[in-house]
Amino acid sequence: MSMFKDIPVEVGVIYEGERIRRNDMQVELGGPTVQQKFELAKVKPLDQIEDGKVTIIGPDLKDLKEGGVYPFGILIEAAGEKLDAGLEGVIERRIHGYLNYIEGFMHLNQRYDIWIRIGKKSFQKGLNNFEAIGKVLYRLFKNELPIIEKLQVTFITDPAKLDQLTPEAIQAYETRDAKARGLKDSEVDTFYGCALCQSFAPSHVCVITPQRYSNCGAISWFDGKASASIDPKGPVFAIQRGDMINEEKGEFSGINDAARQRSMGEVNQIWLYTAFDHPHTSCGCFEAVTFYIPEVDGMGVVQRNFKGATVNGLPFSTLADSAAGGRQIDGFHGMSIEYMRSTKFFAADGGWNRIVWVPKEIKEKVKEFIPKDLVDKVATEDDAKNIDELKAFLKAKNHPVVAKWTDEEPIAETAAVTINEDAAGTMMPVATAGSLPLMAGGFKIILKDAKIYANKVIIQTVKDNKDKR
Amino acid sequence: MTKNVHVKIDEMKTNVGLIKNLELSIGKVVNDNYTEPMGPTPMPSVTALRDWDMKLLAKYKAFYMPDCDSCCLCTFGKCDLTAGKRGACGLDIRAQSSRIVMIACAIGSACHSAHSRHLVHHLIEKYGRKFPLDIGGLNIKVEAPVTRLVTGIKPETLGDLDDVLAYVEEQITQVLAVAHTGQEASALDFESKAMHVGMCDHVGMEVGDIAQISALGYPKADPEAPLVKLGIGSVERSKPVIMCIGHNVVPSVGIIDYAKETKVDDNLEVVGLCCTSHDMTRYYHRARIVGPISWELRFIRAGLADVVVLDEQCVRTDVAEEAAKVNAPVIAASEKNCVGFKNRTNDDTNAIVDDLVSGKVKGVLILDPEKVGEVAVRVAQAVAPVRKRKTILPTPEEIVTIAKTCTQCKLCQRNCPQDFAIPPAMKAAATGDISLLTDLYEVCIGCGKCEGACPQKIMIHSLIVKAGEKAMYAEDNLCRVGRGAIQDTEIRNVGSPIVLGEIPGIVALVGCSNYPKGGKDVYEIAREFASRRYIVVLSGCSAMSAGSYRNAEGQTIWEEFPGGFEAGGVCNVGSCVANSHIAGAAIKVANIFAKRNLRGNYEEIADYIHNRLGAVGLAWGAYSQKAAAIGAGFWRLGVPVIIGPHGSKYRRVLLGRKEDPQNWEVLDARTGETVNVGPTPEHLFNIAETKEECIVAIAKLCMRPNDTWKGRSIKLSHYVDLSKRYLGVMPDDLHLFVRTMADVPSTMKDEFTKILAEKNWKETIIPDPTLLPRMVRKMKE
Fold this sequence. Notes:
The complex is a heterodimer.
Chain A: E1 25-30, E2 37-43, E3 54-57, E4 68-70, E5 72-79, H1 88-100, E6 105-108, E7 115-119, H2 120-125, H3 130-144, E8 150-156, H4 159-182, E9 190-194, E10 206-208, H5 221-230, E11 236-240, E12 244-246, E13 251-252, H6 253-262, E14 288-293, E15 298-303, H7 316-323, E16 332-335, E17 355-357, H8 360-366, H9 387-397, E18 418-421, E19 426-429, E20 445-448, E21 451-459
Parallel strand pairs in A: 1-4, 2-5, 3-8, 15-17
Antiparallel strand pairs in A: 1-7, 5-8, 6-7, 9-10, 9-11, 12-13, 14-15, 14-16, 18-19
Helix pairs in contact in A: 1-3
Chain B: E1 2-13, E2 17-31, H1 50-59, E3 61-64, E4 70-71, E5 79-80, H2 93-127, H3 145-151, H4 160-178, H5 187-216, E6 227-230, E7 241-245, H6 250-261, E8 269-273, H7 275-283, E9 288-291, H8 296-301, E10 307-310, H9 319-325, E11 330-332, H10 349-358, E12 363-365, H11 369-387, H12 396-403, H13 411-415, H14 422-430, H15 435-443, H16 449-453, H17 460-467, H18 469-473, E13 477-480, H19 488-499, E14 506-509, H20 520-531, E15 535-539, H21 540-546, H22 557-560, E16 570-574, H23 580-594, H24 602-612, E17 615-619, H25 625-636, E18 641-643, E19 652-655, E20 665-668, E21 674-676, E22 683-687, H26 691-701, H27 709-727, H28 749-758, E23 769-770
Parallel strand pairs in B: 7-8, 7-10, 8-9, 10-11, 11-12, 14-15, 14-17, 15-16, 17-18, 18-22
Antiparallel strand pairs in B: 1-2, 3-19, 4-5, 6-13, 19-22, 20-21, 20-23
Helix pairs in contact in B: 1-5, 2-4, 2-5, 2-25, 4-5, 5-25, 6-11, 10-11, 12-14, 14-15, 15-17, 19-23, 23-24, 26-27
């Protein structure tokens, strides 16, 4: 590895999955037993950065006791003509990957939660100073992110300095998050599209806006901005927002044009903030799927790892299949969990006012983003296991959707029919009405002394026409 | 599907209406919840996918290595086919070689399908045609991807599997007919038919496995399926031992059920060899897996089996003679393997037991699995105290005496398929040093051919086993019970990491145990790729071999890595027939991510898999016709397969020509333009001579034309690193795999830049790749 020939250990992506056990570690930096720890990226003016400088505040690696656990901080300061503070998060998240490239270096988590171990073997090979680690970071950052013109790295092991810097770092994350979540689609003129998924779902294109993460949950608008500026020919590309055609639904001329072009005309119109009519397409690896529940005129959400059936009797695998493959399916929508934290989360459909059922695992995750008066009104699997229980729950809690219910509730009674089959007379149920919504309403069918003969009957599941507004 | 339905309703009141005295007679009810539109090739005939095969065969040319230069299949011959000569029927050596490949694939496919047919018959008889299929509960929506893809049928009950098998059986007959003298003339057409019958093989396997998973209550696509004991040392030798050999679990189920019913299961060891053992542990977690086929002789000769029960496939045909030497009665339990024994199926159980216990007969044929169960359990209990683990292994002193009779003629080594240095080991043993024999134990595949060759009639294999006894009894390891299919949700979970390159590929280690240097290679290969966060899938003998070794912390591979279909996961799908789930997982990727229809839509899905899914099969110890058939099924899907050194005896490989640019042209489905995507994947079927070569080949064969730049850069990192580490060289073909500079691993930019400049490399694009002109999308107005 000529790029790292002065580094005493190897550096490469193949070391990414490396785990270092306690017995094999030289030192542990940060980790669950240490309070003061962080890693932070800051964008600074060009004249404030000394390119390539590595600073160590406190004892160096070789002066830390073998087997010891120490508080630790990493500060990356970058500058560049095209860099702005919005990209700090993107830069910061690269630290994890880059440090793991180092042989015998384990890095877990991010921000104020970092947990690092340096292996004995690598230490003995000469990885006994932060200077070398700083060089690796510096070279990888400069190589992979050419928009960084200058970069300096600081490692902090001095406890007093960490006492001072850790709260500052936490403050910086909070400010950054608040700013990122506060950024509105209407405030930017560029969105990003991601065609990475096209390698498996050729007709899917993700639109990433400040208020809508990629479906997979892996790419924010800031990530998109960084990727597109680093590699304009790459799979993440800028979409000029264009005219706002429909503010409520989230329709923008630039998105429509990009969708038309990228999908070869399959998708011509996208409404960002709704699951109906022209929803965003769904790929295959979305984190969660939203599904319309016609019986209550509300929407449920289920995430990928949810075991068992959702409130409408269908598991994630079936619901996901209804949405997936780069299609626009009315009433079904694959999305990221992060989107649930956005103020534009299905805003056109009523947002959280329309969400009636969410597994408790995600409800817990996004709780602080659910309007306070609604938190207890959204059912989880503990509250409702089927539509009847859901109706009862929503009614009891007076969920906003209840107000829209009319007196005529859809009929879904189960007709228990048994069939005599073959000479042997084995009994088997043929139809469960739960999966066969009856379309008739307002009239009765009376069959008396009827005999029907058929050579072949095809029974198909019929999708009901829902009233979605 | 339901036939001859008759409904009678005297009175029914519902909210919708009132029904009185309704009678309904229906010839056939097609429960068509399967709303997917039918594709172009449901139940394809032998030629329906010929065009697709020819595309693959043009890209990956058959290279023939005739294992035999003549043909002796008809009485026109025997015909010498060397030096361009044709046989009396006009066939040349290329066509003859491919004909033998096709016959092997047909035999393999017939074997699995007949096994599945027996299972389906038996399970229908026991549980009824209406017994529902359930292979993964709510986490699996596509329950039979291969069946859906090939036949267009969505099976829901055991009875539905009948129609599926009927299709497979017809195709095997058609293909076998082609082998007759004076039929097919072209090597390419023989190849196409080999692929056809290989494709059918996966359908046959899938039918068998989903039937037994559903009816016998196996783990249902469970990544956390339990760990069970593996290895000779795990067998409790103080208890009577029933040893089941083969692939069809039905007689073993009879044994286990009877032992449980009579409450002797805790005082009895039921152990299995070969795939039967996988399926036994899927049914009964207290069963033991002894090991792959190569463990048959050592287990019997060591006297460990009190009763030997034979079902079908990969059963040594000299088991009866071997068992007789240690006074172990044999029960043949399969119509396919009657061993010349008298059929006692309808005889009184007590009489059969008496005859076997007294030694009046050495073995019996019993075709009723429940009767097998009772006889085996009772005989084992009665025989064990009398046999007292009678062995024919020599004592340490005898080893020396016997070794002294060796004349060093070296015929043993010449006859050894691995060319192991037996004569020096005998020479040392004659002086009292058995260490070289002990070393041989670790690598010997137990075929026993050395003994047949020895003019002194030395039981060489027994000497090796005795010398390795300590290691043999230390074989106390673990195997994860076969999980069955891969969940749809697991596939969704890996979508993003595969796209983003975090999972560099899927490696399936399958097949038999004809290993060049023992099973440790399989363990090391599996571990290497799991550690690099590839998805590793195993089955059959490979799953056993991989579980037979431990890491520095004392963990087997099944403890070290999670059992899910995930980055760094190591899955055991199960027995031979469970290999269909590996193809099934690949097929489901197309359905799940691209929403491509599966139903009768083979060509489109194969095109998708071939161009997008970085999966590689490795059959390191493949020996059987079944392995050939499984391989052929993967070729037709466009999934590359690597075989170990013995694989050359399959007579031909399918090699891409990486130096020929035209070989690597695909269409960009977005524009219709032709794009050269480089040799991705380079071969469809190739041989690796060594573990090192194999590891590097796997990493290289994981590249696909659709790789994102991130994915390609990570795949290249592994390829380069493994090549340097195992072969000590920088690969010389890197320029063929770089499309844009973003593909270059960031830590190797300097090296790559230099190489690319030397090779006069030019940037190209990442297309939406397809080999099918009809897949090129048109702009919709």
